[in-house]
Design a protein that fits this description.
alpha+beta; 74 residues; elongated; 3 helices; three-stranded antiparallel β-sheet
Amino acid sequence: MTNKSDDKSDASKQVELVVTQEQYEAGLKRGWTDDDMLKPGRYKLKRGGFLARHPEFKSKMRTASNERRRRWIE
């Protein structure tokens, strides 16, 4: 599986995964099922979409991180 991404800020969030037939067959030989892996082909994905879709978690994560930091300092 190959991972390609550009250096541009917006484009760097785009990831392209390439799965070859050889990689797919190697996975089958290891005992993986076809449900365990991606089929051969190209897959375009967008990184970092979770917090963009759920901004309420960002503030909760910061609060939890700050609490851990304060406890460590004390």
